[in-house]
Amino acid sequence: MRKEPALLGVSSSAVLLALLLASVGMGAQEAQSGPRQTIANDARVAGDRARTRFIADLSKKVEVRVFALGDPYRVIVDLPEVSFQMPPGLGNETRGLISGYRFGLFAPGKSRIVIDVSGPVLVDKAFVLDPRPDQPARLVVDLVSTDRATFLTNLREASAKSTAGAGAAPHAPPPAARPANAKPVVILDPGHGGVDPGTSSTSGITEKEVVLAFAKTLKQKLEANGQCEVYLTRDDDRFLALRERVEFAQGKGANLFVSIHADSFPKQTVDASGATVYTLSEQASDDEAKELATKENFSDAIAGVDLPSDSDEVVANILIDLAQRETQNRSLIFAKSIVGGMSRADLHAKALKSAGFRVLKAPDVPSVLIELGFLSNPNDEKQLTSDTWRGTMADKVAAAIDSYFAKRVARVPF
Known about the structure:
This protein folds into 2 domains: about 40-150, Immunoglobulin-like; about 185-410, Aminopeptidase (3-Layer(aba) Sandwich). About 35% of the residues lie in helices and about 25% in strands. It has helices at about 5-35, 150-165, 205-225, 240-250, 285-295, 300, 315-320, 325-340, 380-385, 385-410; strands at about 40-45, 50-60, 65-70, 75-80, 80-85, 100-105, 110-115, 120-130, 135-145, 185-190, 230, 255-265, 275-280, 345-355, 365-375. It has a 6-stranded mixed sheet with strand order 11-10-12-15-13-14, with helices on both faces. Strands 5-1-2-9-8 form a 5-stranded mixed sheet. Strand 6 (about 100-105) and strand 7 form a beta hairpin. Helix 3 crosses helix 10 and helix 8 packs across helix 10 (about 385-410). The termini are far apart.
């Protein structure tokens, strides 16, 4: 009888020790993996035209930075990287001063919410409430209506504070010298990403998803051929400004730049289908091309990045000069090669077009923009989300790229 308590004591101690070790192990594992990522799982809008409140539910409290931009009017909320697990279709609500909002990864470790507003506003309050037992942490942004003059005054003051003491924006470093027998460098540029989803289908498939999947497939095809070095401007769901895409290509010493997109047309033109290949031209080949270029050039503004004017030094450095016809000629030769390698069924009625796309304006890199198809067309949507179609189309584009470089080697260096 006396031994039994002793045995029980040993057993209890062993259990306690095991639990303690497990607890320490779990703590160490959690410390190694770092704190759990913040989750945003809901958002809503309240108020009227005088004062409107935006609220987002978060799994924990985070630091935020909130500011307004104009032309178009919008309010930007920057926060640490967040996993957006929002209900489908969220962000289309129009209420008070807010006409919609979107969210996504903006840069490594950084997420962004862009709130579209119907006119000039001031950010009256912006804060994050601590979580409580009965509710999550809450991001709150209060907006009040104002006039344009007051808005611009506040914008100038905020801009002066953010740039005071800051040096010039860094440029991409020049590419390292490459040996004469080096493989040509191809840059694949999946359009949009992160906070900028691009266009979308009626079922909710976004352009940023389908073009990234296609770019990854095309990269695999090209690397399997072994004829060139291949880089993606983005390999995940993050936003890149247009100038960043161009500078990335130049920094890699690109010999060819292929920007990949998927179009969408209004319901009355739902019959539009097939791929289109665009090259750069200051004069758009038709109204459709002009409209598309305007939309794509606007992606920076959609994501909350100010679009630079053509007098901006960075943009001025990448504008195509009329004397630089060789780059444009090479771009056109490559574009014709892509179209020539596809069947009539693959292509839009007018498969070769041109317009003033900012992302094609590197003066020293032959560049094209491929619109793979129309997400507004149900048949095209099925193809754009099909692994089989993606592989077949990637084979054709890869063949055009290999053929382009084979012809270049036969004539002159890249």
